[in-house]
Specification:
DNA-binding
């Protein structure tokens, strides 16, 4: 593969991964969430109640993007906002019961994706892949 196809290849992998997630989520009865919201729900599930700025820091998304996603998740009934007991001007985000019931399925689906991604790779190959991806990430952050 030529170096010029690298970013294209990454976008194909992302598209295939998201298609897998969408199909599996629909099978599990979660039809109204794009896969890109999964990391936000996972952060709220594991860290919640949590401030929007902390969700942004953990998700590598900017605060305005996270606020928009939280608003959409709130409209769909997956999260709720509550006042921060330490600072009444701030809010914290928590999962609703609806979201909590889907977290086990979503964890299973995520594990299925990881299994599919790495099914033909040895541990050594995966370690090399992650090492190289880390180098690329550092290169881009330096630019």
């Amino acid at each position: 593969m030529s170096d010029s196809h690298f970013v294209y290849k990454l976008s194909v992998i992302r598209k295939l991964a998201f298609s897998f997630l969408e199909e599996e989520m629909a099978r599990a009865g979660v039809k109204d969430l794009p896969p890109s919201f999964g990391d936000i729900l996972y952060i709220v599930h594991t860290k919640g109640p949590v401030a929007v700025k902390d969700i942004a820091a953990h998700s590598y998304k900017d605060k305005s993007t996270v606020s928009t996603i939280i608003h959409q998740l709130e409209k769909k009934g997956y999260v709720q906002k509550e006042p921060d007991p330490d600072d009444g001007r701030k809010v914290r985000v928590t999962l609703t019961e609806t979201a909590a019931t889907h977290m086990e399925s979503m964890a299973r689906i995520s594990a299925g994706l990881k299994e599919k991604l790495f099914q033909d790779m040895s541990r050594e190959e995966r370690d090399i892949l992650f090492l190289l991806m880390d180098k690329i990430e550092r290169n881009l952050k330096r630019s």
